[in-house]
Design goal:
Blueprint lengths: L4 H17 L4 H8 L3 H13 L3 E3 L5 E3 L1 H23 L8 H8 L5 H10 L35 E7 L4 H10 L6 E8 L2 E6 L4 E5 H4 L2 E5 L3
Antiparallel strand pairs: 1-2, 3-4, 3-7, 4-5, 5-6
């Protein structure tokens, strides 16, 4: 039986919360989905009946093997679509997430395969997040945040958070996008100051600095 859009969204959010926090609760799931705790609990019960998750009441929600496979499939759709929308249709970095959220649910496996082949079977989306392989493997990549680096440290931006469109637009305006190289020139309670490889200098508020992930190393 095909999974509904709501089911796919829940599985995807469960997977992402586990990646960020290591533990998924129904309250965290409700927050991630933007629904009430009661709605999240009811959906979890349905997912348990379909053997897509395991739930320990008042404790954790865990994906089963089938649930994780489905989550990775929809994440693969989403991230391939984001890259396609940016590189082949010219959408801005802050636009691709919302469009991919809609299209990921109707993308056929054949079209997904053709998109992946057209783009040379990419391994990362425009935000720097790894794209799951067709077989369901996902690289476990962690990087320090820009906000964690010390004055004088340098590196390449590996990933930016795609959770907030306004943040992405601001990061794009500042030139703080995946691939850009930066040096921390100053640290203050309200954020950091950086120098880009082309010499431009930017003040990055703390909230933005926490949304940027860096591969440390010489610029």
């Amino acid at each position: 039986m095909p999974l509904s859009q709501a089911t796919q969204d829940y599985l995807k959010v469960i997977f992402k919360i586990r990646q960020r926090r290591g533990r998924v609760t129904t309250s965290a799931l409700a927050q991630g989905m933007g629904v009430s705790a009661a709605s999240a609990t009811n959906m979890v019960k349905r997912l348990v009946r379909r053997r897509l998750v395991r739930h320990t009441p008042y404790r954790t929600v865990e994906l089963t093997a089938d649930g994780e496979k489905a989550a990775l499939e929809i994440i693969r759709h989403h991230r391939l679509l984001e890259l396609f929308l940016r590189d082949h249709l010219g959408l801005a970095l802050d636009q691709v997430h919302g469009e991919a959220e809609t299209l990921e649910h109707v993308l056929s496996e054949e079209v997904e395969s053709r998109i992946a082949a057209l783009m040379g079977h990419p391994t990362a989306d425009p935000h720097g997040d790894p794209i799951p392989s067709k077989a369901g493997a996902l690289a476990d990549v962690t990087h320090p945040r820009l906000s964690d680096l010390a004055r004088g440290q340098e590196g390449r931006i590996a990933r930016v958070s795609d959770e907030h469109g306004p943040q992405l637009r601001r990061l794009t305006v500042l030139g703080l996008v995946p691939g850009a190289r930066v040096v921390i020139t100053d640290r203050r309670p309200g954020g950091v100051r950086v120098r880009l490889a082309d010499g431009r200098r930017r003040r990055v508020p703390a909230a933005l600095a926490r949304a940027v992930f860096i591969v440390p190393g010489a610029v």
